[in-house]
Design goal:
Layout: E1 2-6, E2 13-19, E3 25-32, H1 35-51, E4 58-60, H2 66-80, E5 91-92, H3 100-112, H4 117-120, H5 122-129, E6 145-147, E7 150-156, H6 159-168, H7 214-217, E8 221-226, E9 229-233, H8 239-248, E10 257-258, E11 261-263, H9 275-278, E12 281-282, E13 285-288, H10 301-308, E14 319-323, H11 328-331, H12 341-345, E15 347-351, E16 357-361
Parallel strand pairs: 3-4, 4-5, 9-11, 10-12, 11-13, 13-14, 14-15
Antiparallel strand pairs: 1-2, 1-16, 2-3, 6-7, 7-8, 8-9
Length: 362
């Protein structure tokens, strides 16, 4: 199995490629970055899949924000306008307007009216037209999916979080979706500058406020398991919701889930990563899908401090942080901590240098 975390600026885009228990290669895409991410890296990667005679078994689009859905919208355009073959067999995507059933029922009327779904949610319209819109909501209530030996468990959203999104975007009022996160939407964007001037040991971790974005709360986050290897894909989910699902699976602070990799929630935002979440996780490898040069000042150093200083972290564990970019901003996150910071807190940073992705090989 190979996993690729692609460069998507302050966004998510990844691919899993593995040989299933049927002896055949399989591909899963998880999110897609911005629309420009498609031109930057995804178009070439998808073309490689085509040229190899393979398919994309499943494309998971976690939620409607631009930095997760944009590349999928560009892919849709290459099928509709570019004449490319559609090689995606299945999608995990929750339409924000209403339930899939209601959308199918009203879709023909909406397209013929001035209020086209395309104005608000082009991916929904594309999936309805191609017959690939999921028949049921993708929520934590679904049983795990077995995809040729790869087990996928949905951790979030719960139905109530998805309902909050649909209350915000009723099917009878097709106003534009808030695909671009606004400063007023999420606590994580409140800071005017980064927090890199604070040393790891100086953060007050006793006080914490959770992200309140309705869109982020609707994120599809998943646990994948293959040949004994586990990866947590946390999208932009709220940590309280993830913790609820992990506890429902039987994990506790004293018996945490042991993972090989964690894709850190919301690009390392302090409002999407909590002590209660990391109390339930044992992992030495953390993926930061972020460029460090974005208006939201992500990753937040406080998020990294919470991971490093977690009270249940084994004293002998050496942590690794993988960044999808390499620039001076990212390399300077720990400058104020001094040269001994990596030895003191027992961790190593890794940066992408000559590729457009972080690559993990099993």
């Amino acid at each position: 199995m190979d996993i690729y975390f692609y460069q998507a600026e302050c966004g998510d885009a990844a691919r899993i490629r593995y040989v299933g228990n049927d002896g055949k290669p399989h591909n899963i895409l998880i999110d897609s970055g911005y629309e420009r991410t498609f031109d930057h890296v995804l178009a070439d990667e998808i073309q490689k899949v085509r040229q190899a005679g393979e398919r994309i078994d499943l494309w998971v689009v976690s939620h409607i924000h631009d930095d997760h859905i944009g590349g999928a919208l560009e892919y849709k355009n290459t099928i509709i306008y570019g004449g490319q073959e559609d090689i995606v067999d299945n999608w995990y995507y929750n339409p924000p307007r209403s339930t899939a059933k209601e959308l199918v029922e009203v879709q023909s009327d909406l397209i013929s009216s001035a209020k086209s779904i395309k104005q608000g949610d082009g991916l929904t319209e594309f999936l309805v037209a191609s017959g690939k819109l999921p028949k049921a909501d993708i929520t934590s209530e679904l049983p795990p999916l077995d995809l040729h030996g790869l087990k996928m468990t949905i951790l979030t959203p719960a139905s109530n979080e998805l309902n909050r999104l649909r209350e915000k975007y009723p099917v009878t009022d097709l106003r534009m979706l808030e695909r671009e996160e606004l400063d007023v939407v999420s606590e994580a964007k409140a800071a005017k500058g980064n927090d890199y001037h604070i040393q790891i040991g100086d953060f007050d971790l006793d006080h914490w406020s959770e992200d309140n974005s309705v869109e982020n709360g609707s994120s599809i986050s998943i646990l994948t398991e293959f040949n004994g290897k586990r990866t947590l894909w946390l999208a932009d989910s709220h940590p309280t919701d993830i913790a609820i699902s992990l506890k429902a699976l039987g994990y506790t602070n004293s018996a945490p889930i042991v993972c090989d990799y964690v894709k850190v929630s919301h690009h390392g935002s302090k409002g999407n990563n909590s002590d209660n979440l990391y109390n339930l996780i044992r992992c030495n490898h953390y993926i930061m899908s972020v460029d460090g040069e974005n208006k939201h000042n992500l990753p937040n150093k406080e998020c990294i401090a919470r991971i490093l200083r977690n009270q249940n972290r084994p004293s002998e564990s050496h942590y690794h942080f993988y960044f999808t970019y390499d620039n001076q901003t990212l390399r300077n996150i720990f400058e104020k901590d001094g040269e001994d910071v990596y030895e003191k807190w027992n961790f190593t940073n890794h940066f992408v240098s000559d590729k457009k992705w972080v690559e993990i090989n099993y």
